[in-house]
Amino acid sequence: MSIEHTVYQEPFNGLDAIWLKFGTYEAALIPEYGGNLVAFRDTERGYRFLREPDENAMNDFTANPSVYGIPFLFPPNRYEDGNFPWKETVYELPINEQATHNHLHGFLHNVPWKVVACGTTDVESYVLISQKVDEQHPMHQYLPFKFTVYLRYRLDGTGLHQQCSIVNEGTEAMPNLFAFHTAINAPFAAGSTPDDYRIKVTIGERIELNERSLPTGRLLPLSEEEQAMKTEGVNPYFAAMDNHYTAVPQNGRNYMELTDLRTGVKLVYDVGTSYKHWMIWNNGANRSFICPEPQMNRVNAPNLSNIAPEEAGLIQLLPGERFEQSASLYCIYPD
């Protein structure tokens, strides 16, 4: 029996979107607002894995696309007073978080992306989008590097798969700092409650943040609940979290697992070992969604002179080089 698989264009609550279908899975991507993949669903079981903007939240989505779906942040998180030292130059990023006087989340999560290709094969439904940064791009006045980011999403019988590629098209080394502010529903199954959920993340140590949400230079021991989050799992709303951690892969994998105890379904977010840090944010223990955010670099990395660049995740991409990292969202269903 053939598996239904298709790609089509249809509005998502009024915004132009690319829809992917493969078997029981479907996904929706909105190119105009950060190339954000805002929906990933199991239509047979009625599961909605990502925090989607419903029809009443579209104004909030267009104003704040970083708290829905899988937004791409470049450079990610906060930079003290907007300062971004790189090589022999200190670049000045705009202050867009007035409360902390920091720059927050970069430039690519709220701009239009180009749809390069989309289609199907016997084994997948896919879409490829790109963001080209050059002298004409609004980001270039702040970080004058030339590069292109490619995001390829595909659905197959196992779930959702993402390939991120960054190509340095300039003549000098560029910072390769990015993250995904992935917002996952907990609960994702109708009929389950927040208390039915347990989250596990491959964290290492907690990075202390000050009142401006910037690293102090100290690493903290994990609390009892955080230790459980690293091992057997804990309720995702045990406390309000806006926490920063080192990433420590387990058995060669860097991942989050979210288990629904009522149904026995486990959602796995396998992000790859290039990400050396996690941010975990649950919006004040909102009991609705949680963001396990794989992040290449430590918050404020260019300004952290007291730790080694490799530890800070302050890595470079040389002219002509291409960086790639893959991630997957998939379910383990009970027998």
Automatic annotation (TrEMBL):
Gene3D superfamilies noted in UniProt: 2.70.98.10
Pfam families: Aldose_epim
Protein name listed in UniProt: Aldose 1-epimerase
